[in-house]
Amino acid sequence: MATSGKVIRCRAAVAWAVGQPLSLEEVEVAPPKAGEVRIKIVATGICHTDYHVLEGSFPNVDFPVIPGHEGAGIVESVGEGVTSVKPGDKVIPFPLPHCGECSFCLNPESNYCLKGHFTESQNLLPDKTSRFTCKGKQIHHFLWVSTFAEYTVVPEYVVAKIDAAAPLDKVCLFGCGFSTGYGAAINTAKVKPGSTCAVFGLGGVGLSVVIGCKAAGASRIIAIDINKDKFAKAKELGATECISPRDFKKPIQEVLIEMTGHGVDYSFEAIGLADTMTAALASCNMNTGVCVMVGVPATGSVISLDPLLLLTGRTWKGTLLGGWRMRDSMPKLVSSYLDKKFNSDLLITHTLPIAKVNEGFELLRAGKSIRSVLLF
Predict the structure, then answer these.
(1) Which end of the chain is less enclosed by CB atoms within 10 A, N or C?
(2) Model pTM greater than 0.90?
């Protein structure tokens, strides 16, 4: 490509400081070094995690930063030693690395990697430098992905090649939100056919959990949110009942236990609040019930818990990116999408140009969107 080996000037949405709206800037994106890939981002979703970054509640982020971690694009150029992708390939980067070498990557049951955000800072690329500059200042990366830039540079182990037939403005959601929710049901909970599920929080991730529960053959899927505007979408995706905690005088876990006899088989918390996490745990049955924590809690959150909730046999699990080993799973997920095994397109309520990025966050804040997709 004509741009290979050169600095590219392009648009990006930069967060200069906590609590400020994003600023559309011209940035310089350096070429990829050894083991790195430069991607032309075509589309990116706005995930709630990006909102947490802007308000300062996501841990270990350095400003100024280019957020965004739910994108899809085309490889523009690759650094020395890169073998899994080549220029022109359609790809999806993802915020959970798969280095293939650490003890976690070598364990076939694990999808975490020791290069992940919880063990290694991902504000700069692995060589501790940035590929982004703006107005003469170094700009930080976010989770090594930074999809709010028209071009981004990522390590090879956070990117997967996908089918050339995939529509990038639809499958960009697979970089985080859809895969997280769908995988929480399929991989982490391993929902069984004929079972009963409860899903707390009907944003993009919670509704992806609903899609996963339906795909797994659950017979009852109870969707829970205080925003009733989301109920129609939840039912369209497979929820059998929708309830709002505000309609009841008693705690929501008691309502769910009454509705189901002894509690649901599987419950999912896709909000990230301590109170709803304990309610979700208490709402699954006391012996074989499985509760999966999907939502990201704010930094420093603490949960106080009655240990009897677990003593009787309940299982409480967390999930990162839905338990997928992304480099292997992403191409298969995209193939399932192309084979119409699920319809994740229904999650996309708004499509906006990158210039309207702040409008997209406003829709999210107001509870008016499920997923907004930004196009470059």
Answers:
(1) N
(2) yes
